[in-house]
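User: Assemble these into one structure.

Assistant: Restating your components, then the assembled model:
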Amino acid sequence: MPDSNLPSDAESRNLVTADRLHSAAIHLLRRLRRVDEATGLSAPKLSALSVLVFGGPVSLGGLAAAEQVRPPTITRLVRELEAAGLVTRRRDKDDKRVVRLTATEAGRRLLQRGRGRRVRLLAAWLELLCDSERVTIDRAVGALERLLENARSETGSDPGDGGE
Amino acid sequence: MPDSNLPSDAESRNLVTADRLHSAAIHLLRRLRRVDEATGLSAPKLSALSVLVFGGPVSLGGLAAAEQVRPPTITRLVRELEAAGLVTRRRDKDDKRVVRLTATEAGRRLLQRGRGRRVRLLAAWLELLCDSERVTIDRAVGALERLLENARSETGSDPGDGGE
DNA sequence: TATATTTAGTTAGCGCACCTAACTAGTTTG
DNA sequence: CAAACTAGTTAGGTGCGCTAACTAAATATA
């Protein structure tokens, strides 16, 4: 059964799981992108805005870290969000290099609306499943969140591959 | 759809699940992209190649449908995969408009290696979880696959939103 | 005090993925 | 055979992600 001692069995199971998880994530996002765009914000912008709305004011670098992208990417994203009036930038008084980001009221509203639309579609899809499957997905997402959180330090652990 | 304006308990639960699922998918793929690139193939190419390796020979349009992208996107993807010697294109004898795609041996090998690397990382992450969580994720992925399959026809159901 | 180093963020420029619109070339239909 | 449809390609545009090179502010050092 599920025990970590047998490398081949557990590993190959994880291999299949990982592969399908990867594929499912790709296809899910491709679907949702359309809805996100219909709301006027792309998925990355919605994601970044979400951090600002729920995570309070953060620095630009903090947002980049939270979104796991490089600073230039966040700079451009934030510039466009600011141009749309969804976030405000302020230089920190104590450290004038730092840019403090805050979501505006409009940003909060738009996030809720965008989220509402996306979620309405996703929820409609979830309706196609039975209750136990929904619970399973919900719990799996929780596990994934923890995984992504904890795996932060593990990213570099890449022993070479076995070649062939 | 269930009913009118009142956000019932089940609906708001789905809302939260959907939002977290979306976010988790974004972050998961951002992480994995680095590994995919390290293998020499991007995530979309790996995904397309995977369809060819496991799904047998398909037409270009069939691959586009499977990957849920538009034909031009697949055309470019396949051109690059072909240039890399990973897939072959053949005009169908019966219908000369159709392009039949097949993965080469090199393509199969490369897919397995790329998959191996990605999966090794993902499997290492999964090791951070307990067994029941892994099982949960595996089952959730299965449910998601069915969901994405069945939701194909539901994509267009987008009524306006109810403001806030 | 003056200079070197580090840190936060920006600008410039590249590649990739996705799209729509317009086209070519086969296939089916009237 | 001409008209309509279908499979795939080409052209052109947008957005996201990256690295490299830069400015400006803070800090460390002599």
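The mean pLDDT of chain A is 79.
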